[in-house]
Description:
Strand order of the largest sheet: 2-3-1-4
Order of helices and strands: EHEEHEH
Strand content: 25-35%
Mean pLDDT: 95
Number of strands: 4
CATH class: Alpha Beta
CATH architecture: 2-Layer Sandwich
Distance between the termini: 29 Å
CATH topology: Alpha-Beta Plaits
Amino acid sequence: MKVLAFIKVIPIGTSGGSLSHYVAEVIKVLESRGVKYQLTSFGTGDELGSLNELTGLVNEVTERLRSMGIPRVLVDVSLDLRFDKEITLEHKVRAVYEKLGK
Length: 102
C-alpha cells in the first residue's frame, strides 16, 4: 500500500518571520530518505511506503528542527490511503485536470 501524505510543519518560536530556511531543512530530510514529494507554498505532498515510514519521517523532521533550536513544532498530516488500487501524487492532480478538460 502506498501512503500519500500532505505534511505541514510549522516551527514555533523562531527569531524571524521567514520560515524558508526551516522548510529547506525539511526538504533535505525528505531527499536524504528518498521520499518522492511535491513542494507547495503550504506544505509537501509525499509518497511513502507505509505508515511506519511516515512516523519515522515526522520524527526525523522534528528532531532536525529541534537541533536547530526550535522550541516547538506544529505538525499537521493529512493521509490518503487507497486499499483498492495504488495511486501517486501525479495521478491525483492529473485526474482533476482531466475533469477540467485540460
